[in-house]
Amino acid sequence: MYPLIRLAKEFLVHRKAGDLPPLGTHISHHRCWPQDIDIYFEMNNGRILTILDLGRTILARRVGLLATLNRRGWGLTMAGVSVRYRKRIRPFARFRTVSRAVGWDDRFVYLDQSIWIGDECAAQALYRSAVTDRNGIVTPDKVFADMGLTGERPTLPPWVQNWIDAEGTRVWPPEVPQEPAQD
After folding, report:
1. pTM above 0.70, yes or no
2. Domains along the sequence of the chain with CATH
3. Which residue did the predictor score with more confidence, 182 or 52?
């Protein structure tokens, strides 16, 4: 189940947080609760993605995107993610998430998010996100213009561009292997 209470807490805690520029950074603080753990007594990988979702939601509010989405009737979707898990998050551990957009291309906005326990990175995710309307994807340039933001598109970091290029070689739809014949 989606953690609606945690989402409400994030809106409450960050209600007075200032506005951010499009490439600004949002930091939030959390704890791993028993309902977050899996059979290995660590935070479930799916829950990690959900916690990152909370960070993206508040980031979207702080940069003015949520207000634009609501005003225009647009939606927001995740179109891809690459995740690195490097440190287990144990029950009751305190951690912080760091969320920021790193740039955009003609279709997608790219977001870098990480989870930190002290000075050690536990997980990091690169997301590809799209704003949508009833006709499909709304270009980031149109979204930012609607938000009143102008200026040059930032150059994507090489590691982000490499991921985009690699994704371009990925077969879609995925191949489905044939099931072996039953004896």
Report:
1. yes
2. 4-168 (3.10.129.10)
3. 52
